[in-house]
Records
---
Amino acid sequence: MSYLLGVVLFALAILISVSLHEAGHLLTAKMFGMKVTKYFVGFGPTLWSFKRGETEYGVKGIPLGGFCKIVGMTPQDDDVEPGDESRVMWRYPVWKRTIVMAAGSITHFALALVTIWILAVSAGLPNPDFPTTDAQARQEPAVIQLSECVVPENAVRACTPADAASPAAQAQLRNGDRITSVNGTPINSYGDLLTTLRGLKPGETAQIAYVRDGQPGTTSTVLAQTQRPPLDDPKGAAAPVAALGVGLVPSTPTRVTYGPVGAFGATADFTGQLAVGTAQALQRLPQKVPALWTALTGGERDVDTPISVVGASRLGGEAVENNAWLVFFMLFVSLNFFIGVFNLLPLLPVDGGHIAIAWFERARSWVYGRIGRADPGRVDYLKLMPFTYVVILIGGAFTLLTIAADVVNPITLFSR
């Protein structure tokens, strides 16, 4: 029940975000005096609407987005009523049109920033000093967290009755113990522990010295077997290695909370990291198509593949089911930021395409004026329709592929 509640809540949060996106266009267009005839949440048949002034507001039957109808977005629009010629959007200065078209993405960014700030002063943001790479983790002291079992293959999954019990647990080690030596070899870091264990064989008995609550102790256990790639080549072929059944407890906290003022700086830093990550994700999109197809046809789902609204809602459901509300809101932040950036791409039919054309017209008019030639006027959108259709076709196919993968082989963050 909590899973379904989470799915519905996240889907509702997305719908609200998209509705606010369109509200951003609506409010800025009205602020500049442009004529807005419709603002609807959803698509399809109208369920309910009312008219206030010259604008009809309402809700449609398919809750998959929304739209805002601004009269005369292009010179080719033919829905301009007599007397409204001066209020069509394309006649307004380019800076005003830019604000109106960018207002949707700005709304997404604002939602993300406000949510990040609230998290910074409440639940906390990811600690920038927390080890995020294997090299950083290996420099940490060998303070351990016991695993429930040893998974024999090189995979992350839930334990089954067939998996070997954790040798560390069998040796009566506890979470928070710091290992100081294995078979007489000093252990000064988690990297030393991994290196030393790789030098032993599965089934071999290991003599372990540790410190618990400041008091030294010793124990022994028989090492289990698992599959791992070489330490110096994480992408190399996995081979049988000895396993103690422990993970690392980092010496730094995973999250940091801030005061109301300090949260602004933390929000800016986190947003910068988010921007870099979003740009990198957009660059990798074409490379992820084969991985999505592999997931759809029965292969393992790469956790780095894109997700659709369906996949994001399912992850939101998992987060609520596991009481991981920070994950829920981080998903909300990431999705809003991604949508905001994506809508600014200079491609039709997204907002960024209209902005790019407006500034192209402005630059072309300036150049023609400088060389003494007549202003060529506005871009003919009808000539750009074939290119627009190609973008829609590619985007639609990619969306369908992503949704299908999220239904057939979804990414999961928690064992269910």
---
Amino acid sequence: MNPDGPLIVGGGMAGALLALLLRHHGCPSVTLVESHPLPTEAPPETPSFDARSTALSAGSLRVLEQLGLLAPLLERAASINEVHVSRQGRLGLTRMLAGEHRLPRLGAVVENRWLGYLLVNALYRDDAIEVRAPDGVQAARRVSDGYVMTLNDGGERHTPLLIAADGANSRTRDWLGITARQQDIGHDALIANVAVAEPHQGRAFERFLDDGPMALLPLPDQRMALVWTGPRDQVDAWMAMDDEQALDALHQRMGAAPPALTAIGERHRYPLVLTEACAQAVPFGAVVGNAAHTLHPVAGQGFNLSVRDLAALAEAVGGAAHPGELAHLSQWQQARRADQAWVTRASRQLPEWFRVRQPLFAHSRQLGLLALDLLPGPRRDFARRAMGLQ
């Protein structure tokens, strides 16, 4: 049996983007298997007040630009032109500005259903990408030159490179023989959209509270996306508040910097269970997206880190005659190690760092914020790293 091209299990944003990037880098064919139907119809032009969204860094926008997707994405996205970072109850504020980096924007926030539609639409426009959705994989069998996958209908696909993109509880990762560490940190993330009284002007706000970080991110049409993480009992209390109480609590915690909030949409929560695969590459196999790592949502780094992983993987194997060779995959894994370690460490340590209440440490922490604001060099370096530009 001659092997086909790479086979990706999981048709979410990570899997769909990887399929497009593999083709962009010269892969002759790709198969994508997803258990749920994929969105093939454009969402309504009027945005949903309760829609979920994703913050994309400048580096992620560059990747989408390579695929010709940036212009249509920006039609329904809000640019991030400025980021304010502060600490509740303390002096000290740092600002990150697009102009400092000679960029048109630091990033953009887009509703997931629009980003998903753009990716899926691009998949179906490429005849060399076989999309099997809804479909599933029943079993995987290792052979001498790859894997043979048994699909739900009993048919088989032979692939030289099996890619797990099916989430934090990935069954494909198990088939590859890769284990994962999971840590429930006892906090939940609360997500909602809010309406603002005046235009946000592309400003985003990250506020470190005693009980966890809170972010407000710009959305189109005078809306902002709220992401707050904290202990589960406090999230219980927030979920039980009526809208007026929730808005009052937000105003008290965010301070005077953001625009006044006038309405809050449906609130959602999800537990923060951090996942880290013990490896991301084995012979004829790779692990990406949430199957590889899930992070604390502080600074919105999770999906953006995955985008950098995907772009590097596609570049490493897209034009290779034997994409599943361990030499290619090990080189990719090694090249991504430093960036992954920095982002993982920062996402875990920042919330804890800002929660420490000892006076001396709290004072030095605020001096750190002031130093970032006053010294353009360190601020630029930190921001460019967070944006995936170095």
